[in-house]
Structures are given as structure tokens and as C-alpha cells.
């Protein structure tokens, strides 16, 4: 004799709600980094060169996907430092930057010892958000490895969204002025 069938009904609050796509997420255009003239954001890139370390590899001998987010963070921090914004000073003064959204498109793998460049630019600024684009290219052949788009939110000392300070906006404006594409 078969066991009786039991129907389990979860409370309405436990049921999976319909998940809507993020409105701020924009689809990637392949190698959008090469289309500088059509950009409405800051056209210049900040570049840093890095090298793959052995402990960043997975069991298949390529850089673990999670490590690319670290490369992007390092690129953002170096970009901020290069325009005069010290991230540690921001934190000491009670502010913070959070990355609520980071979309990464993997194009090719990096392997042990590979040299590569992380290119970072700001694509737009709103009242509380800073939108950025990042690209990783293998050296010396400039093979595209990764495209990333993300959003940083300026936070106050209670970790609530706050206006991007005018001084920070002016640093971005100065960088944009220095990197205008003809």
C-alpha cells in the first residue's frame, strides 16, 4: 500500500515572490570600452597593471571568478587615489562607499603569471550614486578578458545613502576635463 500523499502549503509570506529585473542594470555591448566617442560619462580611463598570483587560481589553473571582483575593487581604489580621494580618509570621516551592484561579463581566462591591465572610468554620477565601468585586458596583446559595470553608493555615518560631496564631484569633473576625447 502506498504512503499517503501529504500536501505542504507554506504561509504566503514564505512563498517565493516574483523577482523583477533590476531597472538600473543595462545590457552589455561587446567591447563597449572601445566606443569612447559615444560615451556620455567620463571618457578617460585610469589604468593599473597587475600580475596574476598562484594563489588566485582555481583547480582548473585559471583565475577564480571571485578574484576578478578584487581586481575591480583595486582598480576603483587606485582610480580614486589618482584623482585625490583617499578611501581610508572617507571612512575615517564617517562616510563610506558601498557597491550594491556589480555586473561582470567574463570574456577569456587569465592564468598564472599573466600580466594584465585594469581600466576604470566613471560613466555617470547621480545625487547619491557613482556609476563606473571597468575592463581588464591581457598584456601585451590587449586581449579583452573582462567587462564590468557597477554602482557605488555614498553612505553617511549611519550607512544610509547620502549626497556625493561637492568636493568629490569636483575631483571627477577635473579628471573628466583632463581626459576629453576629441
Automatic annotation (TrEMBL):
GO BP field: lipid metabolic process
Main location: plastid
Subcellular location: Plastid, Chloroplast
Keyword terms, alphabetized: Chloroplast, Hydrolase, Lipid metabolism, Plastid, Transit peptide
Listed CDD domains: 4HBT
Gene Ontology terms for molecular function: fatty acyl-[ACP] hydrolase activity
CC per GO annotation: chloroplast
Family, per entry: Belongs to the 4-hydroxybenzoyl-CoA thioesterase family.
PANTHER family: 4-HYDROXYBENZOYL-COA THIOESTERASE FAMILY MEMBER, NOVEL THIOESTERASE SUPERFAMILY DOMAIN AND SAPOSIN A-TYPE DOMAIN CONTAINING PROTEIN (0610012H03RIK)
Protein name: Thioesterase domain
Native species: Arabidopsis suecica (Swedish thale-cress)
Amino acid at each position: 500500500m502506498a504512503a499517503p500523499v501529504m500536501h505542504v502549503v507554506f504561509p504566503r509570506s514564505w512563498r517565493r515572490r516574483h523577482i523583477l529585473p533590476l531597472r538600473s542594470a543595462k545590457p552589455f555591448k561587446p567591447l563597449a570600452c572601445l566606443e569612447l566617442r559615444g560615451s556620455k560619462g567620463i571618457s578617460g580611463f585610469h589604468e593599473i597593471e597587475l600580475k596574476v598570483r598562484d594563489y588566485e587560481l582555481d583547480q582548473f589553473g585559471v583565475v577564480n571568478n571571485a578574484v576578478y571582483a578584487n581586481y575591480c575593487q583595486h582598480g576603483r581604489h587606485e582610480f580614486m587615489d589618482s584623482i585625490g580621494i583617499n578611501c581610508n580618509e572617507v571612512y575615517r570621516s564617517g562616510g563610506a562607499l558601498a557597491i550594491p551592484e556589480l555586473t561582470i561579463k567574463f570574456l577569456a581566462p587569465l592564468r598564472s603569471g599573466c600580466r594584465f591591465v585594469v581600466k576604470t572610468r566613471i560613466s555617470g554620477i547621480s545625487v547619491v550614486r557613482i556609476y563606473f565601468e571597468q575592463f581588464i585586458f591581457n598584456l601585451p596583446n590587449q586581449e579583452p578578458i573582462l567587462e564590468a559595470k557597477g554602482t557605488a553608493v555614498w553612505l553617511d555615518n549611519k550607512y544610509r545613502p547620502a549626497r556625493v560631496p561637492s568636493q568629490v564631484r569636483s575631483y571627477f569633473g577635473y579628471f573628466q576635463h583632463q581626459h576629453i576625447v576629441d
